[in-house]
Design a protein that fits this description.
The chain is an alpha/beta fold. The chain is built from 13 helices and nine strands. Bound molecules: zinc ion (ZN). One of its GO terms (molecular function) is hydrolase activity.
């Protein structure tokens, strides 16, 4: 079985990606939602996608960039992605701290990766979140669907407080796509924001399929942002289309939308995410903000 795309195909795609941001007059892209994690964990994730498990809605989901870690980082650099993240997340207690150790090391040996950390509702969470912040973490990832926890869980309150105080963004998979979880959807996260209105929440995947409810939260809280991960692509539009009536709100929130891709775990080429944004028709200024400038502001790059 050959999942690897040829070097020639990847090289051509890199040229197309570079032309995309070059046309916009940008120095490159910033992608706030890319997955790097210990190889053993990543391979388990890939196995799950291969098996069309229930958390991905039982969908056919071929991984486009099933490469070794070094090749994946090299490819992002060839695409001209100037900064990216290592989105990793635990599905059970006792795992987050270990993942954070790995991510700190990954950030050390990968200077263009924004040092990423994660958390889970468990004893000691505040301590290791504080530790990660002190160690230089610049972004957190929380996965409400895979972790199957309530983001408003009492055990997380101090940790959210630490992150709000430190102004460190947290990318959270809190929407109910591609498959709902017990605590996904806008309601639990609205309770978190009610207590931590300054939390720099980045709603992953535009909150799909509850796009409009998460736009409500972004309009209500000025520190709420959304990442574009997989949104607007042919793949996602096929089963969780972005509602047309919400397009003007999306255009207006251009300073709060951040490019995210889900690289490498995507069932289409990276370039397609960029084209999916371009064809929204909001123009170059919107694209420049979303693909680069909003993230440079947020992360002080
Ligand atoms: Zn993701």
């Amino acid at each position: 079985m050959s999942d690897h795309r040829s070097d020639m195909v990847l090289g051509e795609e890199a040229g197309d990606v570079r032309r995309f941001w070059g046309r916009l007059g940008l120095p490159g892209l910033i992608d706030v939602h890319t997955h790097f994690m210990p190889e053993r964990v990543l391979h388990k994730v890939w196995d799950y996608f291969d098996a069309n498990g229930p958390l991905i809605g039982g969908l056919e989901w071929p991984i486009t960039y099933r490469e070794e870690e070094a090749e994946r980082t090299a490819l992002l650099r060839e695409f001209g992605v100037r900064a990216f993240t290592a989105m990793l997340y635990p599905h059970k207690p006792g795992m987050a701290e270990w993942l954070n150790g790995w991510a700190a090391d990954f950030a050390r040996r990968t200077p263009d990766c924004l040092h990423t950390a994660t958390l889970y509702p468990e004893p000691g969470v505040e301590t290791y979140v504080r530790g990660a912040v002190e160690a230089g973490a610049r972004v957190f990832k929380a996965h409400v669907q895979v972790g199957a926890y309530d983001p408003a869980d009492e055990r997380l309150q101090q940790a959210w407080g630490v992150l709000a105080e430190a102004r460190i963004p947290v990318v959270m998979h809190c929407g109910s796509g591609p498959a709902p979880g017990k605590y996904t959807g806008p309601e639990p996260i609205a309770r978190v924001l009610a207590r931590h209105p300054k939390l720099r929440l980045i709603v992953a995947h535009m909150g799909m399929p509850e796009y409009e409810e998460f736009l409500d939260l972004a309009e209500r809280y000025d520190q709420v942002r959304l990442d574009t991960t997989m949104a607007f692509t042919d793949f996602t539009e096929g089963f969780m289309p972005f509602p047309r009536q919400a397009l003007p709100r999306l255009a207006a929130l251009g300073d709060r939308i951040l490019l995210g891709s889900d690289f490498p775990n995507i069932p289409y080429p990276y370039l397609h995410q960029l084209h999916a944004l371009e064809r929204l028709g909001f123009g170059q200024e919107w694209l420049r903000a979303v693909c680069h400038d909003n993230a440079t502001c947020l992360f002080g790059l």
